[in-house]
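Hi F.,

I've been meaning to write this up properly since the lab meeting, where we talked about keeping a consistent format for the predictions we share between groups. The idea is simple: the sequence comes first, exactly as it goes in, then the structure tokens exactly as they come out, then a line or two of notes. No screenshots and no reformatting. I'm using this chain as the first example so we have something concrete to point to.
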Amino acid sequence: MPRAQREERMLDAALQNFGERGFRSASMDDIARDSGITKPLLYQYFESKEGLYQACAERERARLFDGLEAASMAAPPRERLRVFVEGYFAYLEEHRGARWLLYGDVSVTATNEMHERNAGVVIRLVRATADELHRSPDATTLTVVAHALIGAGYHVGRWWVEQSEVSRDAAIKQFIPVAAGILAPAFTS
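Output, unedited:
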């Protein structure tokens, strides 16, 4: 089996175990059994249970943000924020209840690194949208609005997945004006 395919099987099994049991209760023995790959190979690829968990969180982060970036860039410039926010909440709703959602037990350092990568996606989207709307935000403005949006989305998302009485549509309706306010400085320059 090629390395990439073997790694995907390990990550799939780990994601299922972490999602069902949480980081602390999931075992490398169960992950190895469920993936059909030996425990020593898990350690060879990921070094530790923490490394495996971070790899799972990063893979899901990348899937989410790569998908959001592609869908948003395919939309007209004035629709991108709505497409991004709707896609984000749809992902959260689909995975609601998964203990790894929004980096659960990932270290602060790894979470900060993931937030940086997420901010990079937002910077690219805002820069492209600003260019198409003939705006020219400077690098500092782009960075500030990207980090503010990522921070707000992260915290609102963590809150929302615990609020089963708040519908996705209600959360989106409330969050879009907040996000638009955060992004406003990039489009007024």
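Notes:
Residues 165 and 171 are 11 Å apart (CA to CA).
DSSP finds eight helices and no strands in the chain.

If this format works for you, I'll send the rest the same way.

G.
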